[in-house]
Design a protein that fits this description.
This protein is α+β, with helices and mostly antiparallel strands and about 90 residues long. It contains two helices and three strands, in the order E-H-E-E-H. It has a domain at about 20-80.
Length: about 90
């Protein structure tokens, strides 16, 4: 029997996006997470997906974002190297 998705499984906090740190160095995590969160809120509004709140042991209460908003963030990161460039890995300059 296939596993059905629950509403909670469709939402994820920014800090728990598994691929995020391939774009952003862990050393910039503290500075990058609020910016990433703002972008995810903006994207969520653009695509009509609600941003929800949940409790977190680490941060008390955090926003969680729909998987469609997270996928759109990744698409934008792939499409434009200058998108959120301040917090991304430095280009190697080859």
């Amino acid at each position: 029997m296939p596993k059905t998705k629950t509403r909670a499984s469709e939402y994820i906090p920014a800090a728990e996006i598994p691929w995020l740190w391939k774009y952003f160095p862990a050393s910039k995590k503290t500075a990058a997470l609020p910016v990433i969160g703002h972008e995810l809120v903006k994207i969520s509004k653009e695509i009509g997906r609600p941003v929800q709140d949940t409790l977190s042991i680490v941060y008390n209460e955090v926003h969680v974002y729909h998987q469609d908003a997270v996928a759109e963030l990744r698409r934008r990161l792939d499409a434009d190297q200058s998108y959120l460039a301040k917090h991304r890995y430095e280009p190697l300059g080859f």
